[in-house]
Specification:
about 60% helix; 13 strands; elongated; Immunoglobulin-like; alpha+beta
C-alpha cells in the first residue's frame, strides 16, 4: 500500500459537527468484487481548501468518530488550485488492505483537523450472484437410482410433485426477498442522505438561534437608549418651559419636540409588544423543532429495528434451505412478515414527507422573522438620528440665548460706565447747573432713568464738546481719536466669522465651530 507509516489525523468530533457537502464522491458502485483494487473518484467543491494532511478512508456504516476507519489513503494535493474552481480527484485502494466481509462500507474525506468533509453512498464487498445453476448427471447413475427405487416410484412421484411445488414457491420467495433486500439497501442510502441533510439543518438552526440572540441583545441596547432619550427629553421639556418667557421661537420648537417625544414613546411601546410576540413565536418554533427531532429519532430507531429484522429473515432463509421438512410453515410466516414490512415502509415514507414539509414551513417563518427584525432595527436607527439632530438644535438655540444674555449684560455694564463718566466730567456738571429753561425736556422713554438716557437725541446734540470714546463692542479695546473710522471698522469686522456654507455671521468662535459641524453632518 502507498500509505506512509504515520497515522492519519483523527478526532473525537461526532457527526453533528461534520460538513458532508464540501466533497462529493462520484461513480460509487453498489458492490465491489473482493480480491481486486478499487478506484475512488471524488470532487472538491469551492467550499473546501485542500491541505497536505487530508486523507480518504473506508468506514463501516454506523461509525461515530473518525477514529473508526478500516483503512485509509492520503489525499493527493491538487496541482491547480483556484478559489472558485471544482477539482476532480481519484485514489486507488489496494486489494490486500480492503475488507473481506460483506458488511456495508462508505468512503469519507477527512481534513487534517480530523473533521469529515464528505461521505459517499454505502457499498459492499461481494461477488456477483449467479442466476442460473446447471446440474449434470450421468445415465448410469440414473439407471442405478431407478433400479434401487422401483418399489418407491409412486412415493417418489408424489414427493417430486410436492417438491416441484415447493421449489416454485421458494424461487418466488427468493425473488421477493432479493427485491426487498435491494429496496432496503436503497432505503439505507436514503437514510444516510437524510441524516446528512438533518445535520445541516441543525447547523443552520443553530446559526439562526445565534443571530436571534444577537438581535435580542441589540434590541435591549436600543431600549436602554430609548429610556435615556426619554429622560433627556424630560430635561429638555423643563428647559423649554423656563425659556418660554424669553423667546417665542423656542416655545414653538419645544412644543414640537414634546409631540415628537410622545410619538416616539408610543412607537417604543408598540415595538416592545411586537418583540414579546416575536419571543412567544420563537418559543413555539423551538418546541415544534424539539417535537420534530423526537419524531426523527423514533423513525431512525424504527429503521434500525427493521434492519435487524431483515438480517434475522436472511438467517431464517438459510435455515429454510437446509431444512426441507418445515418449509411450508416458515414460508407462510415470511409472507406475513414481508407484508408487515411493506406496510411499515409506506408509513415511514409518509412520515418523512410530513417532516420535510414541517421543516420547509419552519424555514419560511424564520426568514420572515429575520426580515421583520431588520426592518424594526432600521426604524429605531432613524429615530435615534432624529433625536440626536433635535438635541443638537436645542443646544445651539440654548447657546444663542446665552450669548444674547451675555451681550445684554455687557451693554448694561457699558451704559453704567458711560453714566459714571458723564457724572464725573466737569462739562456735564456745568450743564446740569444751567437753568431749567435751557435744559431740554426729557422724553417719556428716559423719564424713569436717574440721569436720563445718554443715547437720546437731545443729549447727542449737547455732547459735541465731550471727548469721543471709541471702544470695540466685542473685545472692549479702547481706541484714541487719531484712529480713523475705516481702521475701527476693520478691527470690529475681524471678530465676525462668516459661514462658508450659508450667509450667517457669528461673533463667538465656539458657536461658529458648532454651526460648521452641523453643515458637515448634512
Amino acid at each position: 500500500m502507498d500509505e506512509t507509516l504515520d497515522e492519519p489525523p483523527t478526532s473525537a468530533v461526532f457527526l453533528d459537527n461534520c460538513h458532508f457537502s464540501q466533497v462529493i464522491f462520484n461513480n460509487v458502485e453498489k458492490f465491489y468484487v473482493p480480491g481486486g483494487d478499487i478506484t475512488c473518484f471524488y470532487t472538491l467543491t469551492q467550499h473546501i481548501t485542500p491541505r497536505r494532511k487530508d486523507w480518504v478512508g473506508i468506514f463501516r456504516v454506523g461509525w461515530k468518530t473518525t477514529r473508526e476507519y478500516y483503512t485509509f489513503m492520503w489525499a493527493p494535493f491538487p496541482s491547480d488550485l483556484s478559489g472558485d474552481s471544482i477539482v476532480q480527484q481519484q485514489i486507488q485502494f489496494r486489494a490486500y488492505y480492503l475488507p473481506k466481509d460483506d458488511e456495508y462500507y462508505q468512503f469519507c474525506y477527512v481534513d487534517e483537523e480530523g473533521v469529515v468533509r464528505g461521505a459517499s453512498v454505502p457499498f459492499q464487498f461481494r461477488a456477483e450472484t449467479e442466476d442460473d445453476i446447471l446440474v449434470v448427471t450421468t445415465q448410469g447413475e440414473v439407471e442405478e437410482i431407478e433400479q434401487q427405487n422401483k418399489d418407491l416410484v409412486k412415493e417418489n412421484k408424489e414427493l417430486k410433485e410436492s417438491c416441484l411445488c415447493l421449489q416454485k414457491q421458494n424461487l418466488g420467495l427468493q425473488e421477493e426477498l432479493r427485491l426487498a433486500q435491494e429496496k432496503m439497501k436503497e432505503l439505507e442510502g436514503e437514510v444516510c442522505f437524510l441524516q446528512t441533510g438533518n445535520l445541516e439543518l441543525r447547523r443552520a438552526q443553530e446559526l439562526q438561534a445565534v443571530e436571534m440572540s444577537s438581535a435580542q441583545m441589540n434590541l435591549a441596547s436600543i431600549r436602554e437608549q430609548n429610556i435615556k432619550l426619554g429622560k433627556e427629553n424630560q430635561e429638555l421639556q423643563k428647559g423649554l418651559e423656563s425659556l418660554r418667557s424669553s423667546c417665542e421661537k423656542l416655545e414653538l420648537e419645544g412644543n414640537f419636540l414634546k409631540e415628537e417625544n410622545k410619538r416616539l414613546t408610543e412607537q417604543n411601546g408598540c415595538r416592545e409588544r411586537e418583540l414579546q410576540q416575536f419571543k412567544e413565536h420563537n418559543q413555539e418554533v423551538s418546541s415544534e423543532k424539539e417535537q420534530l427531532e423526537s419524531r426523527l429519532k423514533t423513525t431512525l430507531d424504527h429503521m434500525d429495528q427493521l434492519q435487524s429484522q431483515v438480517l434475522n429473515q436472511e438467517k431464517e432463509m438459510e435455515n429454510l434451505l437446509r431444512m426441507d421438512h418445515d418449509k411450508t410453515e416458515q414460508l407462510e410466516h415470511l409472507k406475513e412478515e414481508n407484508r408487515q414490512l411493506r406496510i411499515t415502509l409506506t408509513e415511514q415514507k409518509e412520515q418523512e414527507e410530513k417532516l420535510e414539509q414541517c421543516l420547509e414551513d419552519l424555514k419560511v417563518t424564520e426568514a420572515s422573522m429575520a426580515l421583520h427584525l431588520q426592518h424594526k432595527q432600521h426604524q429605531n436607527h432613524d429615530i435615534t438620528k432624529e433625536l440626536e439632530e433635535k438635541n443638537h438644535l436645542f443646544q445651539l438655540l440654548q447657546r444663542k440665548k446665552d450669548e444674547i444674555e451675555e451681550k445684554n449684560l455687557r451693554l448694561r455694564q457699558e451704559n453704567n460706565e458711560l453714566l459714571m463718566r458723564l457724572s464725573e466730567s466737569p462739562d456735564y456738571s456745568a450743564r446740569v447747573a444751567v437753568p431749567s429753561a435751557q435744559v431740554p425736556t426729557r422724553s417719556p422713554e428716559s423719564a424713569d432713568l436717574l440721569f436720563g438716557n445718554p443715547y437720546y437725541n437731545s443729549l447727542e446734540t449737547s455732547a459735541v464738546n465731550m471727548p469721543s470714546v471709541k471702544k470695540c463692542p466685542l473685545c472692549h479695546e479702547v481706541f484714541s481719536d487719531d484712529i480713523g473710522p475705516r481702521q475701527y471698522e476693520d478691527h470690529v469686522r475681524s471678530h465676525i466669522l462668516d459661514c462658508p456654507f450659508c450667509d450667517e455671521t457669528f461673533e463667538d468662535k465656539q458657536v461658529y465651530d458648532d454651526h460648521v459641524y452641523c453643515h458637515s453632518l448634512e
